[in-house]
Amino acid sequence: MFSKMAELKRDISNIKRELSLINKDKEEAFSKNHEIGKLIRSYIGQIKDFRNKRDLLTKEIRGLKDKRKASNRKLKEKIDELNKLKIEKVKVLKDLNFKENPYKLKKEIERLELSIQIEGMPFSKEQKLMKKIKEMQKSYNESRVVIDINSKIKEIMRELDSIRKEGNENHELIQEKAKQSQEEHEKMIKLSKEVDELAAKEEEHYNKFIEQKKRFNEANGNLKQRLEELRLVEERIYNMRNEQIARRVEHETNILRSKEEIVEEKIRKRQKLTTEDILLLQRKDSEDF
Fold first, then answer.
1. pTM of the predicted protein model
2. With contact defined as beta carbons under 8 Å apart, do 36 and 149 qualify?
3. How many Cα neighbours within 13 Å face the side chain of 285?
4. Which of 125, 189, 253, 260: disulfide with 121, CB 3.0–4.6 Å?
């Protein structure tokens, strides 16, 4: 029994050491799993931010592209309108058979009118100039349609410049925001890959934690079993000791009773008592007392 008890105590000590090591590995795996999980949640939050920024930029790009399409449609319309005016101008010039530029003609009229006002000239010459001015004015009035067309052409040219400028600005904005959107997308993809790698590590540590927890429970169950076995062995040893003591006490009691009977027999026969007999009687009296 003592050998069995010593063996059980060694087993219990070894199991406790094993439990300590397993528990350390288990807690370490749990801690790493928790830390990685926390990091993954942080990365997922950043990924959502990157995605929101990318989606917002994509929405802005879509709006800018719609504006660019509208500008291109307007540009085409203005170019068509410009081409029609140019064709109309050529036709008018051909129909009216203009030999002089209307703007030069107007300047010449203004020059002649000014010369009549400031120069002293004979009446006949003045009449001649007035007739010429009248003819030139008639030609100029006929050319007003060309001037109007030219004015419209200039206005359309200004509008085309404005539309082209706006289109170029939109194009630059689209390029800039597309670049920003791509950067946010690449950040999101890069972080997503890191999350996938971390998730694999998280699962690895979780599996290790589950495995160590299983080992811990098995070792703990084994410890409980050994402790119960030790309790039973110690209980048996205790009972055996009590039985030995009881047998020894019973044996000693029987011897004393036998000796007491001898002493009592001596007393009845009035035989001489030894010192041992007297001590025995004193002990008996003390016990009875």
1. 0.58
2. no
3. 7
4. 125
